[in-house]
């Protein structure tokens, strides 16, 4: 098949790499891609968010399938445009991407579908929002409705913190339009995990569970990042939970969207909170609650999940894009995977770019190295071009093996100022 992958991060490299490992040969393109995708696909110099330019490329090159990585082009309606051209596309139409783009909309859909999630109320008036705080107790969660680059959620331990967050969003307009509506939400206790569900708008297949590490420093300290590592499966998700997640969460949401005229195709990523044994029960009464939905593969979860998939991945993606998804389309290997993000010093604050990276080939002998923020320098060498630079994945018979292989890979790469967490998967190890 002729396939275009849209995006330029570790997620897109992992998608292109997985497709390159299919039993059938594909003609692969990546827009715009990075130095890593260039090894498995032809990079197309078109920005991932440039909907018009990607649609133009697709019209001229007529791919059999377009796989959209990031949320921004989905929200901007890339899949709507490609669908008009008759090009099968993996990813929801803009109306479906609102599940990620608007937390208020996601709550509405969940409420209508009877899906367990934190109880929430929506406000545009700061006075009313503050007045409502008392009934939520503490901690309480304050959320901007729209996309805020991972910075629009505050878990407030005190009323003063909650009020300050409300003022930031509704008075100071810190997030612009994305914060024009604010959700005050019940705090959910427990451990988080990610379930990537693949759907064709009707049928649903769950990919293996995973867990990511959002904070920059070991022990989950310091500011939030795009994700510093991940592993799959997440032991907090036990086998008995999977049918519940599918039948009580993902399927009802997909059905509810369909009822509203939205055929949701692609990945519906459920961020879940699993309540601790004997802990405080959520108002929903369920031990599994939805924290949020995303409309695409997670990054870096994808770099830990896709290496575990066998079979013909292109078939699964095409079937989801064309309404023919079946259980057998996803084949999971009996392996565990862990991925460690190698970042630029200073990230998630300011950092330098253009640092030459050495040891990539040797790292590739012991682990799979996905590129997140790299490009080719003037002399053809690979240089850093982002905060998250590499995602180094190890696979093994168990988590210890997988993590050790990932870190063995990390030990072989180097660039000026490189930084990474040393405790990826610590929660799983603590469970024993
Ligand atoms: N209701 C909640 N209870 C407890 N923690 C929450 C709740 N909602 C969000 N969080 C925490 O805040 C993080 C970010 O919230 P999320 O809804 O995923 O927004 P986004 O990813 O868009 O920033 C979550 O990963 C979780 O750690
Ligand atoms: Mg999130």
Quick structural overview:
With 432 residues, the protein is α+β, with helices and mostly antiparallel strands. The protein is built from 14 helices and 25 strands.
**How many beta strands in the DSSP annotation?**
25
What would the average pLDDT be, to the nearest integer? 97
**Fraction in helix:** 25-40%
The CATH homologous superfamily of the largest domain corresponds to ATP-grasp fold, B domain
What number of structural domains do the residues give?
Answer: 4
Number of helical stretches of at least 4 residues: 14
Radius of gyration: 21 Å
Look up the CATH topology of the largest domain: D-amino Acid Aminotransferase, Chain A, domain 1
Q: Report strand %.
A: 25-35%
Determine the N-to-C terminus distance. Answer: 44 Å
CATH architectural arrangement of the largest domain: 2-Layer Sandwich
Quick one: overall form? globular
> Low-confidence runs (pLDDT<50, min 5 residues)?
none
Structural class category: alpha+beta
What small molecules accompany the polymer chains? adenosine-5'-diphosphate, magnesium ion
Largest sheet: 6 strands, antiparallel
Name the CATH class of the largest domain.
Alpha Beta
């Amino acid at each position: 098949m002729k396939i275009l992958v849209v995006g330029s991060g570790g997620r897109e490299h992992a998608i292109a790499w997985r497709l390159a490992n299919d039993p059938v040969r594909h003609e692969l393109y990546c827009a715009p891609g990075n130095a890593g995708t260039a090894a498995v696909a032809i990079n197309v110099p078109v920005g991932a968010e440039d909907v018009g330019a990607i649609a133009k490329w697709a019209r001229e090159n007529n791919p059999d399938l377009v796989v959209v990585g990031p949320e921004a082009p989905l929200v901007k309606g890339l899949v709507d445009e490609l669908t008009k051209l008759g090009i099968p596309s993996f990813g929801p139409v803009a109306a479906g991407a609102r599940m990620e783009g608007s937390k208020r909309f996601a709550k509405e859909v969940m409420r209508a579908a009877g899906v367990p999630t934190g109880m929430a109320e929506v406000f545009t008036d700061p006075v009313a929002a503050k007045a409502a705080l008392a009934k939520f107790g503490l901690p309480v969660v304050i959320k901007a409705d729209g996309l805020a680059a991972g910075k629009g959620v505050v878990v407030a331990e005190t009323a003063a913190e909650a009020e300050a967050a409300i003022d930031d969003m509704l008075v100071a307009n810190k997030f612009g339009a994305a914060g024009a509506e604010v959700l005050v939400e019940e705090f959910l206790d427990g451990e988080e995990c990610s379930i990537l569900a693949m759907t064709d708008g009707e049928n649903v297949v769950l990919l293996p569970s995973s867990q990511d590490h959002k904070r920059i420093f070991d022990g989950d300290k310091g500011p939030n990042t795009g994700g510093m590592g991940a592993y799959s499966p997440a032991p907090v998700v036990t086998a008995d939970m999977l049918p519940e997640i599918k039948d009580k969460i993902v399927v009802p949401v997909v059905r509810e969207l369909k009822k509203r005229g939205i055929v949701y195709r692609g990945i519906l990523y459920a961020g879940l909170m699993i309540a601790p044994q004997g802990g405080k029960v959520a108002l929903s009464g369920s031990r599994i609650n939805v924290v949020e939905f995303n409309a695409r593969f997670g990054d870096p979860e994808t770099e830990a999940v896709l290496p575990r998939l066998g079979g013909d991945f292109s078939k699964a993606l095409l079937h989801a894009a064309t309404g023919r998804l079946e259980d057998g389309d996803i084949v999971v290997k009996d392996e565990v995977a862990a991925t460690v993000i190698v970042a630029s010093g200073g990230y998630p604050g300011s950092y330098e770019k253009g640092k030459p990276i050495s040891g990539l080939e040797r790292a590739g002998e012991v682990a799979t190295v996905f590129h997140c923020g790299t490009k080719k320098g003037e002399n053809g060498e690979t240089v850093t071009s982002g905060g998250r630079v590499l995602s180094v994945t190890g696979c093994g018979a168990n988590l210890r093996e997988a993590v050790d292989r990932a870190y063995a890979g990390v030990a072989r790469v180097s660039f000026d100022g490189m930084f990474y967490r040393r405790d990826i998967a610590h929660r799983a190890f603590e469970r024993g």
